[in-house]
Amino acid sequence: MRKLCGASLILLLVTIINCKEDEPIYPIEPYVEFRDLEVKRVENIDSVILQVYARDGDFDLGLNFEDIDSPYHKNWYYDKLESKLIPGAFKAEGLDINSLLKFSDRQTPSFDTLPEFIDPYACINYEVLQDNFSEVIDTVYYQENKFHYNWIFDFQVKQEDGSWLTFDFHKEYPFPNCAFGYYGRFKIQNDIGGGSPFLIQRISDYEMNMKFLMGSPFM
Fold this sequence. Notes:
Layout: H1 2-22, E1 31-42, E2 45-55, E3 75-79, E4 84-88, H2 121-124, E5 126-130, E6 136-144, E7 151-153, E8 156-158, E9 164-166, H3 169-172, E10 182-184, E11 198-202, E12 207-215
């Protein structure tokens, strides 16, 4: 009986080892594949739902809420005293406002190439600072950090000549009703909800299906 139990244990170990050896080994470079695109009304809003499949060898995908420091900060601001760009986690809050490059500096020869405060620059290059009573304090210049988002989605509109042109939300929603577009930041978590536009379903330790819900601003 002891010999039989020993033989069974060896057989079980061999089976476990074989199962481990049969598991696929994926490269650490992420692989993303389009799966589906659906247009439907969600909660009385015209919406587009994009579904993709993704896999990654170490599955280090996504950005968490605490990933707001460089290089994942929101914006770049220019420090006039140090003559360099400085990162801002979200907005200019917490930075030395007096040293930042502002729209008013456009009147000086050193910064006369700053864009005017007109659309689309009023939405994409200037941040209007207000006090607790919504009174304007100042207007600072910034550049958006392209590494802040890990999900970038643009709409293309077919032209009469057959070419495609990226739809510019800033033209449809000029200052002060600036549109943000459909850029986002997803983090890895099973079945994200609670208002997040991402729904992630883990398939394995290295694979997932992800849906991205985009509601139309035009209802």
